[in-house]
Amino acid sequence: MSNPFFDNSGNFNWSSIAALTAIGVAIISVCHNRKVLEQQKKLNDENFEGNIVSKARIEWIQEVRKKSVDFIATCHDFFRYAKSSNNENDKSKILELKSAIEKNATLLILYFGPDRGVDKNNDFIVYLITILSQKIINKDSYYDEEHILDLENQVDVLRDFLRIYFKAEWKRANREISDKEVQKYLETHKSYIRIMKLYESGLASHEESIDYFYSNLERDFTQQ
To answer: Which residues cross the membrane (predicted)?
Structure first.
């Protein structure tokens, strides 16, 4: 049997080594290219998914901003009429604005799902909207200046909190900060820390009342 590494004269055949080397290089190149293509495909898939998530977040931010403006603007319209409600037309308008505030509050709350983990931002926004709308809707027709001023201040707090919150969400949507960095970014704002501290006990009481409500609901269902 002939040896491919030696010719008929018994001399070493360097061309066979060169051919084997070329085959080896070709195999390595194919494997490397396949790995690069797989990595590129994985990266493209991740970028595609990331772009979809980013687009969805941006659309969500834009939509919630509109709903927030509707709610806050309606509140300010209500305050203006409440300060000068001297005739039946004003009272009729106040009732109309109360209805609009209730509707806008409900629509806005539905955009904020329950928080996961220790962060309470969504729950806090829902809490602010809830107490503000309840104070307006459940109040008698008469509003003194002190009460209106208190409500106006709470609207300003909601506005300032949403301004910081939307900025953080915008940065996350554009991948300037990661999901884990959102809370850290929020806490760089003094207003955010002051607001959360100011309403800390109120939020805790609100969460307790929700828990109490569902505990009673569960008890009623089990007794049926």
So the answer is: 12-32
- The residues, ordered by sequence, that sit 6+ positions from 172 with a Cβ below 8 Å of its Cβ are 57, 178, 179, 181, 182
SS3 call for 12: strand
3-class DSSP state of 7: coil
pTM: 0.76
Q: Which residues pair with 12 in a beta bridge?
A: 6
pLDDT digits (tens, 9 = 90+) for 92-148: 888 899 999 999 999 999 999 887 777 899 999 999 999 999 999 876 656 777 888
Segment holding 10, helix H or strand E? none
Task: Name the region of 116 (left: φ>0; alpha: ψ -120 to 50; beta: rest).
Answer: beta
The answer to whether 129 and 72 have CB atoms below 8 angstroms apart is no
Decide: helix, strand or coil at residue 191.
helix
Q: Are 77 and 97 in contact (CB under 8 A)?
A: yes
